[in-house]
Amino acid sequence: MHNGYNQFCPIAKTSEIVAVRWMPLVLRELMADIRTFNDIQRGIPLISRAVLTARLRELEHHGIIERRKREGRQGTEYWLTPAGNALRPIISELGHWGLVHARDSLTLEDLDPTFLLWGFRKRAIRDALPDRRIVVRFEFSGVPANRSKFRVLWLLLGRSDVDVCVKDPGYPVDVVMHGKIADFVSVYLGHALWRDMVGKKLFIKGDRDLVRSLPGWIRLDKVVGRDFPVVRPAA
After folding, report:
1. Could you give phi then psi for residue 218, rounded to 5 degrees?
2. Which residues are within 8 A (CB) of 72 and not within 5 positions of it... i.e. 6 or more apart?
3. pLDDT tens sequence across 152-176
4. Crossing angle between the packed helical segments 23-31 and 49-61, to the nearest 10 degrees
5. Where are the alpha helices (DSSP H) in 47-202?
């Protein structure tokens, strides 16, 4: 366990749990209903497996998450407890503060295409999807040099699962979206509106009905200020 502040102050005690490197991002993924170890790491690709293991153990030790066996499959899932769900307003407000006050601190190195598509995966409204797989190919320009291999990515949308592929999955492509990564991120964060960007800086082509529906399915056409519901009952 990490060292504490040795104070009885509630802010100190909360910070000993939450204000630890990587911990807010681990909680961010858990609060987006990401429950397996591998998927949590996909949302935080720079965290090592050893550190992620340690953070999950700390959360379990403090009663913030619990481990459950996956239904019908091998492996373990991590679920928020009532104490974990009570942290939602804190994480939500961190995100809101960042949207409002940390906008100017974004750098080119922050523009990660894989994380952007992972965000679309989390936002996808599965119930609204048609009863078949939809394959969306993203072609980004202006990608940082250290992420140039992720200039082209695929988003696979389905009612039972949504996934991100860094290599061509081999399925026919239904929709192609292309533009600067910075402009996609601006829309994702709500700094710009899709309706103002499409056809000017961001472009989408494919089946007419899918082109019309896709922005709604991944919530590009709405201003999404916070990715984390503030109130959700424990499962």
Report:
1. -110, 15
2. none
3. 999 999 999 999 999 999 999 999 9
4. 70
5. 49-61, 82-85, 88-101, 113-123, 181-189, 194-197
Torsion over CA of 231, 163, 24 and 125, rounded to 10 degrees?
A: -20
Which amino acid is located at 61 in the chain?
H
Q: Which amino acid is at 75?
A: G
Q: For the chain, which ranges sit under pLDDT 50?
A: 1, 225-235
Residue position matching structure tokens 């922050």: 110
Q: Which two tokens stand for residue 176?
A: 């192609």
Distance, CA of 30 to CA of 43 (rounded, Å):
10
Contact present, 176 and 152 (Cβ < 8 Å): no
User: Would you state the pLDDT for residue 103?
Assistant: 86
Which domains can be identified in the chain, with CATH numbers? Answer: 10-102 (1.10.10.10), 106-217 (3.30.1050.10)
Distance between start and end Cα atoms, the chain: 27
Question: At residue 34, what is the residue type?
Answer: I
- What's the half-sphere exposure (Cβ side, CA atoms, 13 Å) at 46? 8
Sign of torsion over alpha carbons 69, 70, 75, 79: negative
* pTM for the model: 0.84
Residue 235: the pLDDT is 41
